[in-house]
Design a protein that fits this description.
single chain; about 425 residues; alpha/beta; Rossmann fold; TIM Barrel; 2 domains; 8-stranded mixed beta barrel; 5-stranded parallel beta sheet; binds ligand C2E; binds calcium ion
Length: about 425
């Protein structure tokens, strides 16, 4: 299909600059400074892309965005404006929340390189729909009962998906995060966002955690016994009440001959908030036993800084909500940079989670972020698929003459 761009901008010089840039990218272009002509062209020409000035003397750019949302417009939109980047960012978020597909914002003046980078995002950063979590189909919350969950735990209906983490500096594999998957025999794939809270609320999380731990450690021991690769495992609020967890974990790694330093236990802020003293005791015991501890989803919630100061973390994991829009949002870039600085100043390793495109990975590397995880690098996959993924990455790296050992492979070239 031919690509076409419809521009709404009251500044003729800016409109013609955008036109020249778009034509360089082989798009056909139509520009107008009137909202009426804009919506007429929208119906008539069905452009594949839209560039919209937010601040115009006679037209309210925000009204135009709302009308686009009302019409169910699916074309990727670039927002341009001389307004400050915070205002642009707020407009981007509002549009995304209204269901529009905003590629990003261009603060005037802008270069061709910036324009091209945005157009090439193709709607992934800041897109209205988040990319599917875990890749599988999901069903509505509430469709499974506590009884379903009890049965699933008894029948071991849970499996694990493993998502790679790479080092930003050389793109080599650092390890994996284990993510629980539930395939109900008749109801299909149930997302963790449904069953983890259900397990927590019904006192079933301990059993689920033990099940996940066993599977994850078995996989690590059988696939990567003599390897430095790390494995991250999520620990839930309720499991942290359980002071014996540290002993069970230590026995579990010991039985499989795994160095506890290869295991990273990821705590979310909410989980770190349950009974502060027990959590502190348990976290300290886990660290003394050699496990690594990560503060997950850092930056959302209320007490992240307090927890960071209080608990003996070894890793800070920046939440996806700051990382995913990075390429398009200057605000998010600044926040990510500050979080990396904060983590490093506390002597922590920093992981950025939710890396969905190459520009974001390059930015993170520039910012000295240690590790990256996200769909751009690899989706969560089965244990078997991990081996194929590693083999593929190893072949690519060998072809480029950059391969290390098999389990330290260059995985993402760009
Ligand atoms: P989390 O620990 O923050 O895990 C990362 C989530 O982000 C995963 O969702 C993963 O599939 C998704 N993700 C990874 N890369 C990207 C990306 O580039 N873009 C986007 N949009 N998403 C990405 P998942 O697997 O659905 O897990 C959701 C949450 O459920 C996890 O969030 C974690 O809090 C919880 N969870 C999963 N497995 C377990 C488990 O075994 N135990 C406990 N306690 N919680 C678990
Ligand atoms: Ca996690
Ligand atoms: Ca997370």
């Amino acid at each position: 299909m031919e690509q076409s761009l419809l521009i709404l901008d009251d500044d003729a010089a800016v409109a013609s600059t955008i036109r020249i840039m778009a034509e360089r990218m082989a798009l056909s272009v139509e520009a107008t400074d009137s909202a009426w002509a804009f919506f007429e062209a929208l119906e008539l020409r069905k452009p594949t892309h839209i560039a919209l000035d937010l601040v115009m003397p006679r037209v309210d750019g925000v009204e135009v965005l709302l009308e686009l949302a009302r019409r169910g417009c699916k074309a990727p939109i670039i927002i341009t404006s001389g307004a400050g980047s915070r205002v642009l960012d707020a407009a981007r978020r509002a549009s995304t929340e209204n269901g529009l597909n905003v590629l990003g914002t261009l603060a005037k003046p802008f270069t061709f390189a910036k324009f091209k980078a945005l157009m090439e995002l193709d709607g992934r950063a800041g897109a209205a729909e988040p990319a599917p979590r875990g890749g599988g189909p999901s069903i509505a919350e509430g469709a499974v009962s506590t009884h379903d969950l009890e049965q699933a735990i008894a029948e071991r209906q849970f499996s694990l998906a493993y998502q790679p983490k790479i080092r930003c500096a050389d793109r080599k594999v650092f390890g994996f995060e284990a993510l629980a998957r539930w395939e109900h025999p008749t109801k299909g794939a149930i997302p963790p966002a449904t069953f983890i809270p259900l397990a927590e609320a019904n006192n079933l999380i301990g059993d689920l955690t033990d099940h996940v731990l066993d599977q994850a450690l078995d996989w690590l021991a059988s696939s990567f016994a003599a390897s430095p690769l790390h494995l991250a495992i999520n620990l839930s609020a309720r499991s942290l009440d359980d002071i014996r967890l540290a002993d069970r974990l230590a026995a579990a790694v010991d039985a499989r001959g795994i160095d506890p330093g290869r295991i990273i236990l990821e705590l979310t802020e909410t989980s770190a908030m349950v009974d502060p003293l027990t959590t502190l005791n348990l976290a300290t015991r886990l660290r003394l036993k050699g496990f690594q501890l990560s503060i997950d989803d850092f930056g959302i919630g209320y007490s992240s800084l307090a927890q960071l100061a209080r608990l003996p973390f070894s890793e800070l994991k920046i939440d996806t909500s700051f990382v995913r829009p990075m390429a398009a949002s200057e605000e998010c870039r600044k926040i990510v940079r500050a979080m990396i600085g904060l983590g490093h100043s506390l002597g922590l390793r920093v992981t950025a989670e939710g890396v969905e495109d190459a520009p974001s990975l390059a930015l993170l590397q520039d910012m000295n972020c240690d590790l990256a995880q996200g769909y751009h690098i690899g989706r969560p996959m089965t244990g078997l698929a991990v081996m194929a993924w590693m083999a593929g990455a190893f072949r690519d790296a060998a072809a480029q003459g950059t391969a290390g050992t098999f389990d330290e492979t260059v995985s993402v070239a760009s």
